[in-house]
Each structure stands twice: as C-alpha cells, then as structure tokens.
Amino acid sequence: MEPNEVQELEEHAEHAEHDRMMRPVALTMTVLAVLVAVVTVLGHRTHTEAILNQTRAAVEQNRAADEWAFYQAHKIRANDTELISDLMSVVTIANKDEAKKMAKGYADHQQKWVKDLKEGEEKGPRNGKEGR
C-alpha cells in the first residue's frame, strides 16, 4: 500500500465516524468476513481429513494386495513342490540315495508351506482373497 492510500483510508475513517448510517453496514461486513474465514478454515480441515482418509485407504489396499501376493507365492511353491515329488515317484532315478534326500527336503518344505497357508487362511477375509 502506498502512503497516499493510507492517508485516504484514514480520511475515510474520520468521515465515517460522523456518519452513523454506515455502522450497521460495517458491522454486517465484519460479521460476513468472520463467517467467510470460519467456513474457509473448516473447508481446509475437511479437505485435509479427506486426503488422510484416502491415504489410509490406499495403505490398507496395498497391505491386502501384499498379503494376497504372499499367499499366492506360497501356494505356487507348494504346488510346484508337490508336482516335483509326484514326478520323482514315477520316473526312473539313477541315484536313489540323492533322490531320497531331495524328496525328504521337498516333503519338509511342503509341510512348512502347508502350515504357512493354513495360518494365512486363518486370518480370515483380511487376507485379500475376497472378490478374487
């Protein structure tokens, strides 16, 4: 603001002191300005809350997708191990001792993955499988 504008505002204020008809208008303008400020603050708070809710929803969706991917990976490993074990039981194997060691390792892995899958299923609908 320039110095001459400040001086003009002061002159207008001095003239307004003597004009009583302007007081209700000034009061109304003041009340409206306060109401606009309150509405603006509330609008900003609501907007911030909406952004936080969207962020929380995205995080929850990512968590569910991660759990579902974890479940799928375990299921795929378990199925692959079962297929290899089945295949080893029907093909002719040259080194039977080594094959028995491998079969034992597969069986151990299979037990672990079955246990992990059961734990994942016990978590209920939060494992991300609903709707898939």
Description:
With 132 residues, this protein is mainly α. 84% of the residues lie in helices and 0% in strands. The protein has 3 helices and no strands. It has helices spanning 3-18, 23-90, 96-122. The longest helix has 68 residues, at 23-90. The protein is rod-shaped, with a radius of gyration of 37 Å. The chain starts with a helix and ends in a 10-residue tail after the last helix.
Question: Which short descriptors sum up this protein?
Answer:
132 residues, mainly alpha, 84% helix, disordered C terminus
From the N-terminal CA to the C-terminal CA, the straight-line distance is 64 Å
Overall geometry? rod-shaped
SS field, number of helical segments: 3
Low-confidence stretches: 127-132
- Mean pLDDT, to the nearest integer, reads 83
The proportion of residues in beta strands is under 5%
Rg estimate, integer Å: 37 Å
Counting DSSP E segments of at least 2 residues, the number of strands comes to 0
Helix and strand run: HHH
The helix fraction, in percent, is over 70%
The SS-based structural class is mainly alpha
Instruction: Please summarize the sheet with the most strands.
Output: none
